[in-house]
Amino acid sequence: MTSNPIDVHRGLDELRAACATVHLPEDPGYEGARHPWQLTVQQWPAAVAQPRTADEVAAVVRAAARAGLRVAPQSTGHNAGPLEGLEDAVLLRTSSLGEVTIDPERRRARVGGGVLWGDVVGKVAPAGLVALHGSSPDVGVAGFSLGGGIGWLARRFGMQCNNLLAAELVLPDGERARVDADSDPELFWALRGGGGNFGVVTALEFALYPVTSVYGGALVWDWRDASRVFARWTQWTSEAPDEVSSSCRILQLPSIEAVPPPLRGRQVAMIDGAVLADDEAAEKILAPLRELGPEIDTFGRMPAADLVRLHGDPEGPTPAAASASMLGSLPAAGVDAFVEAAGAGSGSSLTVAELRQLGGACGRPHPDAGALPMLHGEFAMYACALAAEPEALRIGERDAERLEAAMSPWACGHYLNFAERPVDAALGFGAEAYERLQQIRRRVDPDGRMLANHRVPAAA
Ligand SMILES: Cc1cc2nc3c(=O)[nH]c(=O)nc-3n(C[C@H](O)[C@H](O)[C@H](O)COP(=O)(O)OP(=O)(O)OC[C@H]3O[C@@H](n4cnc5c(N)ncnc54)[C@H](O)[C@@H]3O)c2cc1C
C-alpha cells in the first residue's frame, strides 16, 4: 500500500483518538508493546494498537486505512516468525478482547479475539465439557482456530477450525460482520483454515464436547532408545484407532526449574497423548508401546482439563529457532533419517524434535469443512531449539534446517500453524481450495489491507 506523509500523520492522529491504547515508535510504551511471544522475532510496526472493544477495532482499521497502513492482527505472537515487515502496518494486539462465555446446553463457547486456551479450559471444565485446544495454555484461540488447530482429541473430533460455528469480524473496510454458515457461507468457509487474511476476528463461537476424563500421560525412554521407540510408534500409528492422539519426540531438556526433576537436564525419547476410552480399552491400545519398557510411564485416568499442560510446552514469551513440515507415512529409512538428524550422536542442539500423529478425523474430509477439510500427511513435524544468545540461535537454526532437509524425501506440504518461517501458503492447501481462498480475499480485501502471518494474496 502506498501512503503520503500527510495522510499518515492524520491517520495516526485519528488512530490515537480511536483507541485508548496506541503506541507510536516515539512513545515510551512502544518498546514493551512491540514484542511477540516468539522473542527471536523483531517487530517494528508503524504503531501498536490494543483496542478493548470490537468498535475500537473497527475504528483502528478505518484509521489505518486512511493513513495508508495495513493491519496485522496478533493475539500472542506465537506465529510471528512468518509475518512480513510491519513498517507500513499497525500491529493490532487483540489481547484485551478477553470475553469467555459458555452455553453448556448447546455445548458451545463464545470467546473474544484475544483469548488464550488456558482461559477457556478452566471455564468449560466445570460443565463437564472440553474444547479442542492444543498443547499449550498460552496459545491464542484465534490464530490456532483460523489456521487449523490440532490437539489431543483431534483424531476423534477433527481440527478446531472445522468446529467453528460463527465468527465476528471487523472486515478490511472497517465494517463489522457476524459470519456463519448462513450469513456468508463463502467467507465462513475461508475462515475455517484460511488464517487471518480476511479481517480482524473480535469473537469466535465453537463446539464443545462432553468429555470429563481421558486416559492420558507420557512414556519416557533414554534418547539412545529413540530408534526402536520411533520405529514401533510410527508402525503403531498406522493402525491406532481414532480414539487416540499422540506425539513422539526427542527432547534435550534444559536443567531449569520449569522442567520436572526426573526429566531435568536429560535427553529422552517421549511418547505422550490421550486415549478417549475406558481404562481397559486404553491399556489394550497402548500395550504395543508399553512393551518397549519405558523408564517412566505416567499414563492413567486424568481430568480432561489437565490435557492443556500434558505436553509441558513453555509458557510465557520464549526465544526459539524452529522448523516444520508435514510428512507422509514413514518407512524405516524415514525413522533412521529423523533419529540420525536429531538423536543421540547427531550433535543436534534441538530442544524438541517432534512428530504429531495425524490421520483419524484429521485425515478425512470433515463434514462441516472449510478451507482446510483435512491434513494429507500422516505426521506433523515440528522442531525447535530454545536459544536466547545469537550464537546458540544460529546453531539452533542450522539444526532445525538440517532436520527439515533430512526429512524432505517424506515431506508433503505444510501444516501452516506449525510453520514458524515464511513458506508459500499454497503448500498448506489443496489447489482448488487455495484458488477459492484467493477469490474470497479479492472480494473482502481487494486493497490488501490485512497482513497475515501466512499470506493468501487476492486473486488477480
Ligand atoms: C509452544 C507452542 C505450542 C503450540 N501447540 C500447538 C498445538 O498443539 N496444535 C496446533 O495446531 N498448533 C500449535 N501451535 C501453533 C499455533 O497454533 C500457531 O502458532 C498459531 O498461529 C497461534 O495462534 P496465536 O493467535 O497464539 O498466534 P499469533 O502469532 O498471535 O497469530 C498468528 C496469526 O493468526 C492470525 N490471527 C491471530 N489472531 C487473530 C485475530 N484476532 N483476528 C484475525 N487473525 C488473527 C494472524 O494472521 C496472525 O499473524 C503451537 C505453537 C507454539 C509456539
TrEMBL record:
Q: Which UniProt keywords apply?
A: FAD, Flavoprotein, Oxidoreductase
Transcription regulation as a keyword of this entry, yes or no, is no
Q: What does the record give as cofactor?
A: FAD
Superkingdom of this protein's organism: Bacteria
Q: Which InterPro entries match?
A: FAD-bd_PCMH, FAD-bd_PCMH-like_sf, FAD-bd_PCMH_sub1, FAD-bd_PCMH_sub2, FAD-linked_Oxidoreductase, Oxid_FAD_bind_N, Oxy_OxRdtase_FAD_BS
Q: Which residues form the FAD-binding PCMH-type domain?
A: 41-211
Q: Which family does it belong to?
A: Belongs to the oxygen-dependent FAD-linked oxidoreductase family.
| Name the UniProt record assigns to this protein | FAD-binding oxidoreductase
Which organism does this sequence originate in? Pseudonocardia alaniniphila
